[in-house]
Amino acid sequence: MNNQMKDKISGLFSSLFTGIFIFLFFTVTPEIKAQDEDIVKDLLKTVDILNETLLDMTALTDDQENAIGEEMDKQISQDLRFTNERKFDLKSIFKKLMKYVERKSINYNYKVVQTDEVNAYAISGGYMYVNTGILDFLDDENEIAFVLAHEISHNEKKHCIKRVQYAALATSVDPSFGEIVQMAYNMYSLPFSKYDEFEADDNGVFLMQKAGYDKSGAVSFFEKLEELEKEYGIDQRDAVNDFISSHPTAKERRERILKMD
Ligand SMILES: [Zn+2]
User: Fold this and answer.
1) Contact 67/121 with Cβ under 8 angstroms?
2) Which of 21, 85, 116, 211 has its CA 20 to 30 A from that of 168?
3) 33 CA to middle of ligand 1, Å?
4) Ligand 1 centre from 82 Cα, in Å?
5) Ligand 1 center–CA 237 separation, angstroms
6) How far is the CA of 221 from the centre of ligand 1 (A)?
7) Taking the C-alpha atoms of 4, 68, 71 and 179 in order, what is their torsion angle to the nearest 10 degrees?
8) How many Cα atoms occupy the beta-carbon half-sphere of 251 within 13 Å?
9) Ligand 1 centroid to 252 CA: how many Å?
10) Nearest to 156 by CA among 118, 117, 210
11) pTM score, two decimals?
């Protein structure tokens, strides 16, 4: 997209956002009443749809996304020690889940990282990292199936690549491929928003169930995580932790999943 068009679109969006925020400021502060909450939800949804439209216009192809993932993986892998899978047959769990992914041309793959931290994470292009710490922490195949399905869902729902697109849009000049990879690398350890986490949980449960796993694995996973959150303390986690987070908490996530059909 050329810069003039980009400027036009960002101008349009910033005035729209300003309008929405002024509206929100006068209608929902200082107290949010029950009926106002629906208005806020509707507005947030509108913002979301507009965001999606903007991102669709600047979308990267799946091939480009895979290429970004491949380059990032090279950089990330320099600092990690990989090992063979243990305890669970990850290969077969992964294969079962893969049958039901929607983004067929994404290069989904995973690596097992030798480190005690209870964590797994995903980057653009379907690359996933599963720590031995999380494998040791879990007991049930349904639990690890949920963890994998959740990480897959961050790419199914384009959470990883969206951040890269936002960063690329924010630059005044069209960035080169190398610069986009660098942006992606700088951002991969930032936490996802609460909404992205909820969406990855929802899609994760949906995906695991399609592959024949039981939702109880997601519930017991978050139960265990609730205990671990108390031990860990938020400050002790590594920079990249997709599960131990102050928002949303394991409790919130477990309760949402329990309510799902
Ligand atoms: Zn996540």
Assistant:
1) no
2) 21
3) 30
4) 21
5) 15
6) 13
7) 10
8) 5
9) 14
10) 210
11) 0.78
Select from 136, 168, 138, 166 the least CA-distant residue to 150. 138
Q: Would you give per-residue pLDDT tens digits along the chain (261 residues)?
A: 445 445 544 554 554 454 444 444 444 444 444 556 666 666 666 666 666 666 666 678 999 999 999 999 999 999 999 999 878 999 999 999 999 999 999 999 999 999 998 999 999 999 999 999 999 999 999 999 999 999 999 999 999 998 888 878 777 677 888 888 888 888 887 888 888 999 999 999 999 999 999 999 999 999 999 888 877 665 555 545 777 766 688 899 999 999 987
Give 58: exposed, middle or buried? Use CB within 10 Å, 0-12, 13-18, 19+.
middle
How far apart are the C-alpha atoms of 65 and 160, rounded to whole Å? 10
DSSP 102: S
Distance 100 CA to ligand 1 centre (A): 19
CA of 201 to the centre of ligand 1 (A): 7
The tokens describing 228, both together, are 């671990």
Which residue bears the tokens 């990855």?
Answer: 200
Structure-block tokens of residue 23: 């509206």
Nearest-angstrom CA–CA distance, 76 and 174: 25
Identity (one letter) of the amino acid at 8? Answer: K
What spacing in Å lies between the alpha carbon of 171 and ligand 1's midpoint? Answer: 27
29 CA to centre of ligand 1 in angstroms: 31
In the chain, the amino acid numbered 38 is D
